[in-house]
Each structure stands twice: as C-alpha cells, then as structure tokens.
Amino acid sequence: MDYSDKEIIEGLLIRDNEIILFIYKKFFPGIRKYVMSNSGSADDAMDVFQESIIVFYNKVRNEEMDLSKNMRMAFFNICKAIWSNEIKHRKEKPLNENIPENLPETPPEIEEKIHVLLTRHFKKIDPDHRRILNLYIEGKSYQEMEKITGLSLSNLRKKKHEAIRKLLISLKNDREFNELFDGA
After folding, report:
1. Which of 35, 136, 157, 169 lies most in the core, judged by the most C-beta atoms within 10 Å?
2. How would DSSP label each residue in 142-160?
3. What is the CATH number of domain 108-180?
4. CB atoms within 10 A of CB 57
5. Considering the chain, what is the average pLDDT of its residues?
C-alpha cells in the first residue's frame, strides 16, 4: 500500500505502527545507502533512521516543519543532518554530498515479505528489548522511557543499541531476508 505525505504525517502523529513500518520500508534503503557511502555501517544507518523518525515526529507535532514541501526530501535532510553531526564527532573523511535520487519503489509483494520477516524477528528478541524498541518507535523521549522502564539513561541506551543489534543479527542470519536484499 502507498500513502500520501498527508496520510504519513497524520499516521505518524498518532504513532500508527503501519505508517512507521511503511516509512521504514520506503526510506530506509536510501538512508542506509547514504550512511554507508559516508563512512557508516548498517547499524549506524539504523540509528540515524530511528533518530530521524523521532526528530521528524517532533518537528511535525510542534509545527516546526513546512508540510507543503516534499516529505521524502524533508526526512532525508533530517537524516543527513543527524549523520553529518555524528560524522563530525568521529572526525572521519568528509561526507559524500550526493543525495540519492529516484530511489526504486519497493514492489508490494516484497514489502509484505519484509513486514512478515520484521515481525517474525521482532518477536524473537527478548521481551525487554521489544518493550524498549516499541517505546522508541512510538517516539518516546529517553526521559519518558526512563520513567516507564525504571532504567538509567546509560542502561536504556545500551539496551536499545543491544536490541537493535540483536534484531539486525537475527535478520542478517535469515536466508529469506538475505535473498530479499541480495545486492541492496
């Protein structure tokens, strides 16, 4: 299913999981390509993507974003700014400023397979990790997550990264997932 920018923004504001998954499927491949072509890893790309979802959500919620602009480019610019900031802190080689144009559309049957695989692997990770990732996907701030989970900020960040790492490892070890993204 394809959503208009308006439907995506409305769905994001109500934290609709289907919309968040749609954003992931639609935009993550381009973000991953951008981050990895600029001294990053797949894990870095996932972190940038997740932080960008939260920043984008907050900007829309706080009416700090011109919603008449292309949502894809606005989201990509947020990702680019987050990665640029991260790379400056790492003091690595300069960024490749080429923005991926005309990202290929993901066929609906592939989107469905991705959804099934993500759901399957998400259910495999530890319930505490699922809980933290769900809170993060819902756009909860670290302060809110601290109150809900009772974990310190450093433990919360560590567990979030551990959860993402475990989910990615689980996906990378899945033959079906690798076949879907072979060459991506």
Report:
1. 35
2. HHHHHHHH---HHHHHHHH
3. 1.10.10.10
4. 17
5. 80
Q: Which CATH architecture has domain 5-90?
A: Orthogonal Bundle (1.10)
Specify the length of the chain in residues. 184
HSE-up of 86 (CA within 13 Å, CB side)?
A: 18
* pLDDT, position 93: 46
Residue 93, amino acid = K
Instruction: Confirm if 24 and 49 have CB atoms less than 8 A apart.
Output: yes
Q: Are the C-beta atoms of 38 and 87 separated by less than 8 Å?
A: yes
Q: Where are the domains of the chain?
A: 5-90, 108-180
Q: Which of the 8 DSSP states describes residue 100? A: P
Distance CA 51, CA 9 (A): 16
Measured at the CA of 72, the angle between CA 66 and CA 78, to 5 degrees, comes to: 70
pTM: 0.50
Identify the CA nearest to 40 among candidates 2, 3, 73, 89.
Answer: 89
Rounded Cα gap, residues 168 and 165, in angstroms: 5
Check: CB of residue 17 under 8 Å from CB of residue 137: yes
* For residue 43, pLDDT beyond 70: yes
Looking at residue 163, its amino acid is: A
Cα–Cα separations (whole angstroms), residue 92 to 25, 77, 148: 29, 20, 37
The label of the residue with tokens 């993901």 reads 106
